[in-house]
Design goal:
Helix content is 39%, strand content 11%. By secondary structure, it is an alpha+beta fold. The chain has a 3-stranded antiparallel β-sheet with strand order 1-2-3. Helix 2 packs across helix 5 (130-142), helix 3 runs antiparallel to helix 4 and helix 3 (54-78) packs antiparallel against helix 6 (157-164). It is globular, with a radius of gyration of 18 Å.
Amino acid sequence: MPDFFEILGTTRSMRRLKPDPVPDEMIKQILEAGTAAANGANNQTWRFLVIKDPAIKKAVQIWYKKAFDEVIGPRYATSAPPPGMTAERYTRQRGAVEYLTEHFHEAPVWIVACLKDGANPTRGAGASIYPAVQNMLLAIRALGLGSTLTARHLMHEKEVEAALGLPPGVHSYAILPIGYPMGKFGPVGRGKLSDFVYLDKWEQPFPAVAES
């Protein structure tokens, strides 16, 4: 297994996944990692829906593609590369996003990360599910599998959650498509640490990261 900090630095989105089956024992390990995460008051209101049924995945993929056609695709076409990414790499990322859009339903396993958060979830609700999502992404990477955190389906939330069969008071926060990656793991593309970190006052440099 790779070193922990290597895992952190190479857990990038893997959007091209093989259709080969993923053993249930691996999925169990990933879920156990998720439930080890921090959550509000340890109430454990998270729920994880494992999806293998091709019909359910295809029903969701229709809305997933609709969101790409309406919002995500045009955004990529008009946006500059984010910090730490060249134009060439950004173009490759867009290609990977398009690939995932067309093949989303072919990933052998999905984990849908949900919360029992009632009718009107607050801004802080995600604090009880996204740490679990990140834990699962790290576990997926450690096991040599690939995934990406996607919440695009929330652009058509009601339709997708109906397709997923979620009961009232339960909402999805992310879908993790999981499979063996077609590509190779590598460093994540990020800007300089000094561009994001301040000391005591907004935009006051933190000397410890001045060269980072």
